[in-house]
Amino acid sequence: MNLQTWKDILSELSSKWSRQEWQENWTLLKSSFKAPSQEPPEPMMMERLGAEVQAWPLHRTTNGTYRLRMATWADLNHFVDLEIKGYEGYVAWDLADFHTDWQQNPYGLYLMMESMADQKPVGILVGRLRHKGAHLSHLIIDPAHQRQGLADALLDCFLSLSHGQGIRLASLEVRQSNKPAQHLYQKHGFVIQHELPNYYQQNKESAYYMACILRQAAFIRRNEDDSVKP
Question: How many Å apart are CA 49 and CA 45, to the nearest integer?
Answer without folding.
Answer: 6
